[in-house]
Amino acid sequence: MTFKVVVRRNELPPINNATGGYRVRFRIVSADRNRTSAWVATSLTPLTARTRNLGLGMVAKVDKTTNPSSITATWDYDPDTKDEYDVYVAYDTDQWEFKGRTAMLTYTWLAPTGKSTAKIEIKSPSYPVGEWSELPPPLYTTSVSLV
Question: Could you give all domains of the chain from N- to C-terminal order, each with its CATH number?
Fold first, then answer.
């Protein structure tokens, strides 16, 4: 038997801007409430494309515990964009490059070694992926230090 649990937005705590998602844990209770499971370990639930705009804007963080480091960008839902976003990045003074397309509101990739900063832009998808000058203006933009 499968049950779907829906948590209303007004029942959620404020968004964690450092992680771009919610830290959640849960336990299962039997229908007759006689049995209860142990609590599941706390996990990070990232925002999805169906999340409403929470005023987050865009947050980028670097995880230096991995080798090479990884960069995670998280941004708000944009009602004018369908369900996909294009991610672009420019390291130091390098040219902008297309990192990928995602339906999620978060994107993670490995940072190159020897670079000190990353500028990140989230754009509406373009078909095909065009030259930088031909792309729509960014929905969100930020930069992050890699050192």
Answer: 58-145 (2.60.40)
